[in-house]
Amino acid sequence: QRPNLHTVHLKKKNPWLDPFDDGPDPDMEYGSLFTDGKQDEDPRPPDNPDNPYGFLKFPKGFSVEIASLALKVRGDVRRCCCMVSGGVYENLLFFPAIQMIKDRYPGVQVDVVVSPRGKQTYEMNKNVRWADAYDVDEDFPEPRVYTDFVGVLKGRYYDMVLSTKLAGIGHAAFIFMTSAEHKASYVYPNVNSAGAGLFLSETFTAESLNLSDGGYHMYKQMVDWVGKPFRSVPRQPLPPLKVSLSRKIKEVVEAKYRKAGAERGKYVVIHGIESDSQASMQSRGDTDSLLPLHVWKKIAKGIRDLTPVFVIPHERERENVEEIVGYDASIVFITTPAQLAALINDSAGLIATNTAAIQLAHAREKPSIGLFCSEEKAKIFVPNADEKRCTIIASKTGKLIDIDVEAVKNAINFVNVSLALV
């Protein structure tokens, strides 16, 4: 018996919500006025800059004469909230996803909810309207802060909420209380995810308990869902990582490295000094990504015709650098990712371990040398290294401390000419 081709069951949105939902009816037709193409720009009037109160803002769904029917039929997204788990490195790798949301939904307003350290990253992102400091990784938040923030998110009337924190029933209920129409989040790959699907419209089961193990493409499942093709809209491609720098940050950083004795385009940034400071900007997926100073001293001796600039995450490291490397060493104290990006932007190149600096160099299209504890970590965090002008040096023992210093020096000699020409 031939199968009936008319009874094709599409993927269910969420089997927890309705076990009898077989997906949209293939015979139902909507007019092209509401379903074809991407959403239009927001037709609502903008705020009046001369009036402190602005125009009266109605909640979603209450201003029928302004909100188009396509907002409901086509699933348009006017306001999106992204809850990003982790620190600087994890938030930096979420930048391409934010750019894809802006491309997929023209005119959308994107807000982020991140940790205080992660909030510093959005100084380099022009696509984000508001960045709120709230640590979603906190297992037992203070009730006063928790309830207040639920009210803040609920009052903004988001259409879509995305979360990269592995959700159980508690975090899923937190997202559910925002009253957004589209609620998507990663969930635990074990029994801790039980019940989370009841509160979410889309779930992504993480491959491990640490999402950062996925490296550069750690948000692949969420990106595939956000950029999925829909009727006449093709699949939205993922753009590369880009960061923007303000003139004020560039001026502040230029004063710092000039005070340290370096000139624009004539120095190499060294990042990844061993320290217990959170400003080291490590990834949660690679904890073995810092080198002690005596190794960096050997590497710095291989740099010719350029000034090595040591980036310290805390002022207490300055004495250690002066004692081990020398009192004439160029030292710059930087804790924010935007200032680090500006320092790399004015440099000839970068030599760093697997910290956020290696991704910032790729975003600003600067040549770099990446030091990794293994080849596997290098392939995960820096795919297509040749296209990104990145030379990979990996340890053969699986420990970063055992990295071949002579191989690093040879790589420096190989790229010295290209660095000097940048």
Keywords, please?
422 residues; alpha/beta; Rossmann fold; six-stranded parallel beta sheet; 29% helix; 15% strand; elongated
Short description:
With 422 residues, the chain is an alpha/beta fold. It is 29% helix and 15% strand.
| N-to-C SSE string, H for helix and E for strand | HHEHHEHEHEHEEHHEHEHEHEHEHEH
Spatial strand arrangement across the major sheet: 3-2-1-4-5-6
Number of strands: 12
Strand content: 15-25%
* Major sheet details: 6 strands, parallel
- What structural class do you assign from the helix and strand content? alpha/beta
Quick check: average pLDDT? 85
pLDDT < 50 stretches: none
* Span of the ends, CA to CA: 68 Å
Could you say which overall geometry the principal axes of the C-alpha atoms support? elongated
Multimeric organization:
single chain
- The Rg value, from CA coordinates, equals 24 Å
In CATH, the topology of the largest domain is named Rossmann fold
Helix proportion: 25-40%
CATH architecture title of the largest domain: 3-Layer(aba) Sandwich
Question: Can you identify the CATH class of the largest domain?
Answer: Alpha Beta
Count of helix runs: 15
Region (Disordered): 1-52
Biased composition (Acidic residues): 19-28
Biased composition (Basic and acidic residues): 37-47
Organism: Pelargonium transvaalense
